[in-house]
Design brief:
Blueprint (H helix, E strand, L loop, with lengths): L2 E4 L8 E4 L13 E5 L8 E2 L25 E2 L4 H4 L10 H11 L4 E2 L2 H7 L6 E4 L5 E6 L6 H4 L4 E3 L2 E4 L4 E2 L7 E6 L10 E2 L8 E7 L5 E7 L11 E6 L5 E3 L15 E3 L4 E6 L40 H11 L1 E7 L4 E15 L5 E7 L14 E7 L4 E8 L16 E6 L6 E7 L13 E7 L9 E6 L2 E9 L2 E8 L4 E7 L9 E7 L9 E2 L1 E3 L5 E3 L1 E3 L7 E6 L10 E6 L5 E6 L6 E7 L8 E2 L4 E7 L6 E6 L4 E4 L14 E8 L5 E8 L5 H4 L2 E6 L3 E3 L2 H4 L26 E4 L4 E3 L10 H18 L3 E11 L1 H12 L6 E5 L23 H7 L12 E6 L9 H13 L4 E6 L9 H18 L10 E3 L4 E3 L30 H7 L7
Parallel strand pairs: 5-6, 36-41, 47-49, 47-51, 48-50, 51-52, 52-53, 53-54
Antiparallel strand pairs: 1-2, 2-7, 3-4, 3-54, 7-8, 8-12, 9-10, 10-11, 12-13, 14-15, 15-16, 16-17, 18-19, 19-20, 20-21, 21-22, 22-23, 23-24, 25-26, 26-27, 27-28, 29-30, 30-31, 31-32, 33-37, 34-35, 36-37, 37-38, 38-39, 40-42, 42-43, 43-44, 45-46, 46-49, 55-56
């Protein structure tokens, strides 16, 4: 499915729309397995370390990606793959022999699954600032494992590719095609950007402000199949000709943090590797002393379970080596000038008038317990030619940010340029010491000040807020929208202010619960200014003095999302719906303004917007919608990515939990399935729990029944091709109303939601009561293990990917729980399936990336959980994926995960029969099974957010850390 990402900044067009020679031979123990079954007990892990993998060509085209020599096709073992599941009728002895023959080698899933995963990926799209050209950014299929095997440094919460001096495991584009957007809405012929070497990997694509040039980074593969360092290239949009920005071939980009940005139409500011840098520091054979951490000052320091942190002085030196940049000002005419001293620069943002640069950097002392987002941070203002103007702040090391949600760092934060002013700064400062548990009013104050204030000029107070500051949307001196919110109560408020007025005249525009999607009024649409910033678009009507905004909303309703565009009178609050999605067959949404190429207000009769349109069986296409006639011109015609499933059946279903909470799910059925003729199917259920403060909000419908069924490489929807029913994303609300915390009744509500989902699919006759499996990723894996422990009557087997199972290993909070282990001991223990390992009697398949870097989901979580299961004789299997992180990226890994999952379902779900009294006892309102039919399961139904680089929603990560781990502007 084509994904859409929006970013508003001065250097991009505002939106990129994203719609995946011989391989290496791996040793037989490349994949690490642990298996324990009731048939034959092994001694435990078969986890010998593999030899270093040779790195050959990292490029895999869609055409060539379907055959890898070292992969063993699943159908080579008919007894395991079985097509119809017949292989599971073999003797236990034969089955075990086959397992041993396959262990340690990467496998391929059945062709019907493999062909979908290997389908060529659709391109990403990017519009020019003038909206007259579109880039088609070409992508490859899944990367080979050899790329993930490249060495990487784990430093300060990041993973760095030392060869490239960038973040490791970056995706990339393989080519750029330029299309002219014709007046009639059609696209002109493609013009290929050319001039760079064959096999180039392209990143960080930016338009110049005038739309005449593109900038991007280039890296190529060396002989050992690893990528070289990044260089900056520029391309002429009219001719497509590309060339290096620097005449010297020895100037390389340092892309550990920020990379490069257009200062004006003809010059860029680039983070480069200092030319004087030598070889990396060598790790001393003998340490200078012990590793010591001390808290003799008795500070209260509570941090979540972060990974990849600095460990010693050598790591600190190595971090400085890779993260230190020299800023270079480079013009298209070849002029080059170094500005400022070398430092660990994390961001550089030019002012709208191009006179100043906002420079952020981090410095020592570093920390061994928190990631780099909490290191000491300095923010300065420089002139555009690199002269120091002033220091805004120098924040100390922030190891003690409370774990309570809505807690923040002390001091100035969220420092930005006003989008509607030439060079005015604004920021927020906490008044509660950053601790959400402190009651104070106001809680945050928002300030504003010119880049170079007059002597003695103090910052101006823009707004005092009683909730936590959440950002500002600027328009002009007469209007800005200020956002604040509070997680504990889910309250969110939007204020209007007049920044040019002395009293600001603030008043509340919207005050609502962030959980209440039905009341969401939408967000104001933004327009691009000539300086490249984005401000609120004001709309005018002919012969009408009123001022209107465009509110773009998802339109959540009890029947599903019906996106809309409202004309909103900012003074009276009245609304006029000027556009709405077709709710009968299609799902349409407004993506961006396309008539914002001129300064001043936009007139209603000249309005143009970019919309997307899709249906259950038709993938997303894009249209230009024009007023007043509301004519829609289609500008893309992408083919169906997996035509073999084009006629799949999709339905959004509603049902009720025993406590009265309304639940929803999306039910998918295979093409051509007829319940009256085909009977109930094996069913795969894939979900992810969510926390709510009210039953009403938990029961609201989210999503649309008409959205296209996007199938990612690890999606459970792949098993539609294996004739499974898929229950995708059944809501599993964990509700804590009033003073009650959601997790106080986690297990009870989890089981209640699962029972309601299982009963519904059985009632509909689409799922066999003895053939229901459950699965999930990350927190969904945690859910899966808990359901097998506490609701064994519902499921025949489970699949859990990259989960955390013992909450005592994450003692200072996890997911949305902000109480510590010592404050809520019983909650931590009762929620941990590790503590209930003795209750799990159904087959459970565990996956984990060996290099998982996600907060809380350390690989040892699966290791220890498997050992606990094995110690109680559970039927279980653990697959550790070499080089993989929290989500799985390499083709070998993904294909093997699919093979393992399919094998598990064919073996422990499909063969189950209904001749042992498996039925739904409606009088008791629960599933009743016979002793031999205890193995019921809900299989892996992947939600649409599962991708090759990450499946499902990860455990909650540190927000301060995220500021430095966010995707660079040019990758969005």
């Amino acid at each position: 499915m084509m994904r859409i990402y929006k970013v508003y900044n001065r250097c991009t067009c505002g939106s990129i729309l994203t719609f995946s020679p011989p391989p290496p031979l791996f040793p037989s123990n490349s994949i690490k397995f642990a298996r324990f079954t009731s048939v034959r007990r092994t001694s435990g892990h078969l986890r010998t370390h593999s030899a270093k993998i040779s790195r050959l060509s990292p490029i895999m085209t869609a055409a060539a990606s379907s055959r890898l020599g070292h992969l063993v096709p699943a159908n080579a073992f008919a007894t395991e793959d079985g097509g119809s599941g017949g292989g599971s009728n073999n003797s236990a002895n034969s089955s075990t022999q086959i397992d041993e023959a396959l262990d340690g080698k990467y496998q391929l899933p059945p062709p019907e699954i493999r062909d979908i995963v290997d389908a060529p990926p659709l391109p990403a799209l990017s519009f020019s600032p003038q909206r007259d050209k579109i880039l088609f950014l070409k992508r490859r299929a899944l990367p080979p494992l050899a790329e993930l095997a490249a060495p990487e440094e784990k430093l300060a919460g990041m993973r760095i590719d030392g060869k490239c001096n960038s973040r490791s495991r970056m995706s990339f584009y393989t080519g750029i095609g330029i299309h002219q957007l014709m007046p009639d809405g059609t696209l002109g012929p493609e013009k290929e950007v050319h001039g760079f070497p064959d096999g180039t990997k392209i990143n960080f694509i930016n338009w110049s402000l005038d739309g005449r040039h593109l900038s991007f980074s280039v890296r190529v593969s060396d002989d050992d199949n690893s990528s070289s360092k990044l260089t900056v290239w520029v391309a002429n949009v009219e001719t497509g000709e590309a060339r290096p920005l620097f005449k010297s071939p020895d100037v390389y980009v340092n892309a550990v943090f920020d990379n490069f940005v257009w200062l004006d139409d003809s010059s860029l500011l680039v983070c480069t590797i200092p030319s004087s840098r030598g070889d990396p520091p060598k790790k001393p054979l003998v340490p200078s002393g012990p590793k010591i951490q001390s808290n003799e000052t008795k500070n209260v320091v509570q941090v979540r379970t972060f990974q990849d942190l600095l460990k010693d002085e050598y790591d600190e030196d190595l971090f400085d080596y890779y993260a230190t940049s020299q800023l270079v000002l480079a013009s298209l005419d070849g002029t080059v000038k170094e500005i400022g001293p070398p430092a660990v620069y994390t961001s550089m943002e030019p002012s709208p008038d191009e006179k100043y640069i906002l420079i952020s950097s981090i410095h020592r002392p570093y920390s061994f317990i928190v990631p780099c987002g909490r290191f000491p941070r300095k923010v300065e203002v420089w002139t555009a030619d690199g002269k120091f103007v002033r220091e805004l702040c120098d924040l100390p090391l922030a190891e003690d940010i409370p774990i309570a949600f809505s807690s923040v760092r002390k001091g100035m934060r969220s420092i930005n340029w006003r989008a509607d002013k030439p060079s005015t700064l604004y920021w927020a400062e906490t008044q509660d010491g950053g601790d959400a548990k402190v009651e104070v009013s106001p809680r945050d104050i928002v300030y504003s000040q010119p880049a170079e204030p007059l002597e003695g000029e103090q910052p101006e107070i823009l707004m005092k807020l009683d909730l936590r500051y959440g950002g500002i949307s600027w328009c002009d001196d007469s209007l800005a929208l200020v956002y604040e919110s509070w997680y504990k109560t889910r309250r969110t408020r939007t204020w209007t202010i007049s920044p040019g007025s002395k009293d600001m005249n603030p008043h509340i525009l919207f005050d609502r619960s962030s959980e209440d999607v039905y009341s969401d009024p939408g967000s104001p649409m933004m327009r691009r200014t000539s300086s490249g910033t984005y401000v609120i678009a004001k709309i005018k009507k002919e012969n009408d003095e009123g001022t209107y905004l465009l509110l773009n909303g998802s339109g959540a309703t009890p029947e599903g999302n019906i996106p809309f565009l409202d004309l909103f009178d900012i003074k009276t609050g009245s609304k006029e719906r000027i556009w709405q999605s077709d709710k009968e067959k299609y799902y349409e949404s407004v993506v961006a303004l396309m008539s914002d190429t001129k300064e001043g207000d936009l007139y209603m009769d000249h309005l143009k917007v970019l919309t997307s349109k899709e249906s259950k069986t038709e993938n997303t296409q894009y249209y230009i919608q024009s007023w007043p006639e509301k004519k829609a011109c289609q500008i893309t015609n992408f083919p169906h990515p997996y035509p073999q499933l084009a006629s799949l059946q999709k339905e959004m279903i509603r049902y009720q939990r025993k406590d009265g909470v309304q639940l929803t799910a999306t039910l998918y059925l295979p093409p051509g399935y007829d319940p009256s003729k085909d009977g109930p199917l094996p069913c795969l259920v894939w979900s992810y729990p969510g926390e709510f403060k009210s039953k009403d909000a938990a029961g609201q419908v989210r999503g649309s029944p008409n959205e296209f069924a996007g199938i990612g490489p690890t999606s459970a929807l792949l098993w539609l091709a294996r004739r499974f029913a898929i229950l995708a994303g059944p809501t599993i609300p964990i509700i804590g109303e009033g003073n009650e915390e959601a997790n106080d009744r986690y297990v009870e509500q989890l089981v209640g939601s699962a029972e309601a989902a299982v009963e519904e699919v059985i009632r509909r006759g689409v799922a066999h009561p003895a053939k229901i499996a459950v699965g999930g990723h990350s927190y969904g894996a945690f859910m899966t293990a808990n359901l097998l422990a506490h609701a064994p009557h519902l499921f025949c087997c489970g699949i859990a990917r990259s989960g955390a199972y013992n909450r005592t290993l994450t003692p200072f909070g996890f997911q949305n729980e902000d109480r510590t282990l010592w404050e809520a001991t019983s909650v931590y223990v009762e929620m941990s399936p590790f503590m209930s390992a003795n209750k799990i009697k159904k087959p459970i398949l565990l996956f984990h990336g060996e290099e998982d870097n996600n907060s809380g989901t350390l690989t040892m979580q699966s290791d220890r959980f498997f050992n606990a299961l094995k110690g109680h004789g559970a039927l279980c299997r653990l697959v550790i994926l070499p080089f993989e992180s929290h989500g799985y990226a390499a083709r070998e890994s993904i294909m093997h995960v699919l093979w393992e999952t399919d094998r598990w379902l064919q073996k422990y779900c499909v063969p189950n029969v209904s001749d042992v009294n498996g039925k739904l006892d409606s009088s008791k309102d629960k599933v009743v099974t016979g002793e031999d039919n205890a193995n019921k399961g809900v299989a892996d139904t992947a939600n649409n957010t599962v991708t090759a680089t990450g499946s499902g929603v990860p455990e909650l990560e540190d927000l301060e850390h995220e500021k430095f781990n966010c995707t660079p502007r040019s990758l969005l």
